[in-house]
Amino acid sequence: MNNFDKAYHDLCKKVLSEGESKDDRTGTGTISIFGHQMRFDLSEAFPLLTTKKVSFKLIATELIWFIKGDTNIRYLLQYKNNIWNEWAFKKWVESEDYEGPDMTDFGRRSLVDDNFNEQYKAQLAIFKDKILNDDDFMKKFGDLGNVYGKQWRDWKDVNGQRFDQLQTLIDNIKQNPNSRRHIISAWNPTEIDTMALPPCHTLFQFYVKDGKLSCQLYQRSADIFLGVPFNIASYSLLTHLIAKECNLEVGEFVHTFGDAHIYKNHIDAIEEQLSRDSFDPPKLKINSDKSLFDLEYEDLEIEGYKSHPSIKAPIAV
């Protein structure tokens, strides 16, 4: 098994064998451990897991969305990226503007009631069409509040002062690579209540050694089956992009967890994935000399990606 898939499989096995059963905010229930770390040598290859198919397009377009400082899902939907839909949809169906069938607890009900699932899919299709084509609706219901992109690019303190963390980080890496302050935080305590989902990947730090850039992420809460494969690839991609911006090579991505959990309705999917062997990991190509801030998905390419089929599992909202 390749080193990247092995690190992920080892985490899954550890949680299944050592984790504690816990209640959670979503009512789904989890098996959880507290504290774990994985390391990925990005000079070897790109850590897109191969024991199930992981969509690089979804990962890259979400990351570019963060980098742009965007918080509205229209950009994502333009790339058919639906990973943030549920939180925006929830805001609409709980508003006075919504006039359709009752969508209470739509995430769970859509899995157990076929008739309701058809209603849910119909309302979600209406919602997505309005986000893409109705500017007023998009502004009112497409925005997720002060989530990652806002904190990375437009942090606001209690005095109203604004700060671009990402641009400052890049400037500091170029000017003082040995600093221990190459840090971006998405956890802004004064704005947590303004976010559709408080940041799970809360803080990351960069480190320069021998002309190589490494990144360590602290993730307070980690959905191991659905979220973590995306997080691994997303922050590895970010490390590549910032390294290129700063004329450095890539070093390691270090992934550190707080509460690492498997939702109880994901256990069968995890066990199916653990039964698979891996393929060789792919390579990342950046086909542009544009600035990090001007890159689009079309400038990126994954080369030689071979994987097992994707595995479906419900998202807990």
Automatic annotation (TrEMBL):
<dbReference type="InterPro" id="IPR045097">
    <property type="entry name" value="Thymidate_synth/dCMP_Mease"/>
</dbReference>
<feature type="binding site">
    <location>
        <position position="316"/>
    </location>
    <ligand>
        <name>(6R)-5,10-methylene-5,6,7,8-tetrahydrofolate</name>
    </ligand>
</feature>
<comment type="pathway">
    <text>Pyrimidine metabolism; dTTP biosynthesis.</text>
</comment>
<dbReference type="GO" id="GO:0006235">
    <property type="term" value="P:dTTP biosynthetic process"/>
</dbReference>
<dbReference type="GO" id="GO:0006231">
    <property type="term" value="P:dTMP biosynthetic process"/>
</dbReference>
<dbReference type="GO" id="GO:0004799">
    <property type="term" value="F:thymidylate synthase activity"/>
</dbReference>
<keyword id="KW-0963">Cytoplasm</keyword>
<dbReference type="Pfam" id="PF00303">
    <property type="entry name" value="Thymidylat_synt"/>
</dbReference>
<comment type="function">
    <text>Catalyzes the reductive methylation of 2'-deoxyuridine-5'-monophosphate (dUMP) to 2'-deoxythymidine-5'-monophosphate (dTMP) while utilizing 5,10-methylenetetrahydrofolate (mTHF) as the methyl donor and reductant in the reaction, yielding dihydrofolate (DHF) as a by-product. This enzymatic reaction provides an intracellular de novo source of dTMP, an essential precursor for DNA biosynthesis.</text>
</comment>
<dbReference type="InterPro" id="IPR020940">
    <property type="entry name" value="Thymidylate_synthase_AS"/>
</dbReference>
<feature type="binding site">
    <location>
        <begin position="180"/>
        <end position="181"/>
    </location>
    <ligand>
        <name>dUMP</name>
    </ligand>
</feature>
<feature type="active site" description="Nucleophile">
    <location>
        <position position="200"/>
    </location>
</feature>
<feature type="binding site" description="in other chain">
    <location>
        <begin position="261"/>
        <end position="263"/>
    </location>
    <ligand>
        <name>dUMP</name>
    </ligand>
</feature>
<comment type="subunit">
    <text>Homodimer.</text>
</comment>
<feature type="binding site">
    <location>
        <position position="223"/>
    </location>
    <ligand>
        <name>(6R)-5,10-methylene-5,6,7,8-tetrahydrofolate</name>
    </ligand>
</feature>
<comment type="similarity">
    <text>Belongs to the thymidylate synthase family. Bacterial-type ThyA subfamily.</text>
</comment>
<keyword id="KW-0489">Methyltransferase</keyword>
<dbReference type="InterPro" id="IPR023451">
    <property type="entry name" value="Thymidate_synth/dCMP_Mease_dom"/>
</dbReference>
<keyword id="KW-0808">Transferase</keyword>
<dbReference type="InterPro" id="IPR036926">
    <property type="entry name" value="Thymidate_synth/dCMP_Mease_sf"/>
</dbReference>
<protein>
    <recommendedName>
        <fullName>Thymidylate synthase</fullName>
        <ecNumber>2.1.1.45</ecNumber>
    </recommendedName>
</protein>
<feature type="binding site" description="in other chain">
    <location>
        <position position="25"/>
    </location>
    <ligand>
        <name>dUMP</name>
    </ligand>
</feature>
<dbReference type="InterPro" id="IPR000398">
    <property type="entry name" value="Thymidylate_synthase"/>
</dbReference>
<feature type="binding site" description="in other chain">
    <location>
        <begin position="220"/>
        <end position="223"/>
    </location>
    <ligand>
        <name>dUMP</name>
    </ligand>
</feature>
<feature type="binding site" description="in other chain">
    <location>
        <position position="231"/>
    </location>
    <ligand>
        <name>dUMP</name>
    </ligand>
</feature>
<feature type="active site">
    <location>
        <position position="200"/>
    </location>
</feature>
<dbReference type="GO" id="GO:0005829">
    <property type="term" value="C:cytosol"/>
</dbReference>
<keyword id="KW-0545">Nucleotide biosynthesis</keyword>
<dbReference type="GO" id="GO:0032259">
    <property type="term" value="P:methylation"/>
</dbReference>
<feature type="domain" description="Thymidylate synthase/dCMP hydroxymethylase">
    <location>
        <begin position="6"/>
        <end position="317"/>
    </location>
</feature>
